[in-house]
Amino acid sequence: MSSLRKIDVVTPLLGEKRGQMPVKYCASAFAPSNIALCKYWGKRNEELNLPITPSLSISLGKLGTTTSVCLSPEPRDIVTLNNREMPATTKFAKALATFLDLFRPSPTVFFRVDTQNTVPTAAGMASSASGFAALVLALDDLFGWALSTKNLSILARLGSGSACRSVLRGFVEWNAGADEDGLDSYAEQVKGTWPDLRLGVLRLSELEKEISSRQAMKCTRLTSSLYEAWPIKVSHDIALIKESIETRDFELLGRTAESNALAMHATGLAAWPPVLFWLPESVATMRKIWALRKEGLPLYFTMDAGPNIKMLFTADQLDAITTEFPAVEIVEPFSS
Ligand code: 2P0
Question: What is the Å distance from ligand 1's center to 264 Cα?
């Protein structure tokens, strides 16, 4: 495996811009959360978050993260999350400080980073994707880099893989790339919108995850005998999802996304130690969705590395969905 560190990618990417002081005191940016319809599951490089396969997501409209970055008035980084200061010893503050190290003009330059998640906490959606994307967009403004979307996506990926998809809106594909330095591994917008598309988030557990997605995908890649089938599944599913977007074929989109998520979870089940994110409530909800579908309701779901379910449907089914799932949180991916 390559021994390249993140800094070995950042330095040539920023060129002479690296090491220069910010051009303003404060900058702020928003990035949307995203949910993968074809999942990112397995890395070819852990340090640079380079994936084994491409993935394809949909961004969540106005749900995401707003981050402001300022030069710190004190000789330390100051980090807040939803208006609460996060001590330097927290995982959140440590991850930010390590990422900011990549961009400090000198070790004595510190930042104040204020992060606001507009994803309702109750929705249970990961915020590292929108968080690192918003941070990179804000840093670009603070330093006056004026980087291309491609390079912003590459920098966001160094924070968290799925963050590279959150620098763009709508349907977004992350090209896996093959280069050792990952300069060909970035996200691009997939043409097409789908204003009627809706997501319904069902938060089924408040419990902290037992295993992070980072650990889970590593364990699966290294030990699951089903993992070798995953890249083949992804290449079929990406093509089908693109076709469904082009032809606005909701049934094709829904069944491909659902099948892709189930296949991802299946690879985990065959890992050792086994990786299973589902709770009894997750399985009961899947069965309910399958039963409703059998009765004619066009409703599908996807799941990430956790027990919660994200349903996919079209706006005309909204009443039926809220009747069946009163606790559902509705997301309009194409609202601005
Ligand atoms: C995805 N997930 O495509 C997949 C599906 C979880 C399941 O991207 O280690 O937080 O920071 O690159 O991006 C979550 O993984 O992992 C994720 P890192 P990340 O959305």
Answer: 12
Q: Are 197 and 312 in contact (CB under 8 A)?
A: yes
Q: Roughly what angle, to the nearest 10 degrees, separates helices 149-159 and 128-143?
A: 130
Share in percent of the chain as helix, strand, coil (round to 5): 40, 20, 40
Ligand 1 centroid, distance to 69 Cα (angstroms)? 24
The residue whose CA has the least distance to atom 4 of ligand 1 is 40
- pLDDT per residue as tens digits for the range 28-70: 999 999 999 999 999 999 999 999 999 999 999 888 999 999 9
Please state which of the ranges 118-127, 137-146, 175-184, 218-227 shows the lowest mean pLDDT.
Answer: 118-127
Q: Where are the alpha helices (DSSP H) in 60-186?
A: 91-101, 128-143, 149-159
Cα 323 from Cα 321, distance rounded (Å) = 5
Question: Cα of 116 to ligand 1 centre, how many Å?
Answer: 20
Q: What is the reported pLDDT for 220?
A: 98
Angle made by CA atoms 72, 76, 78, in degrees to the nearest 5: 60
Is 36 near ligand 1, meaning CB less than 6 Å away?
yes
Q: How confident is the model over 112-153, as pLDDT tens digits? A: 999 999 876 545 565 789 999 999 999 999 999 999 999 999
Q: Which two tokens stand for residue 256?
A: 């491909």
Amino acid, single-letter form, for residue 288: K
- The reported pLDDT for the residue numbered 125 is 64
CB 173 less than 6 A from any atom of ligand 1: no
Cα 229 to ligand 1 centroid, rounded to whole Å: 19
Q: Return the number of other C-beta atoms located less than 10 Å from residue 254's C-beta.
A: 23
Check pocket membership of 161 for ligand 1, CB cut-off 6 A. Answer: yes
The pair of three-digit structure tokens given for residue 329, joined into one six-digit string? 């949180």
Give the pLDDT score at 206.
74
Q: Which atom of ligand 1 is nearest to the CA of 160?
A: 11
- Average the pLDDT over 257-267 and give the result: 98
248 falls in which pLDDT band (50, 70, 90)?
A: very high
> Distance from the CA of 129 to the center of ligand 1, in angstroms?
8
Looking at the CA of residue 157, tell me the nearest atom of ligand 1. Answer: 12
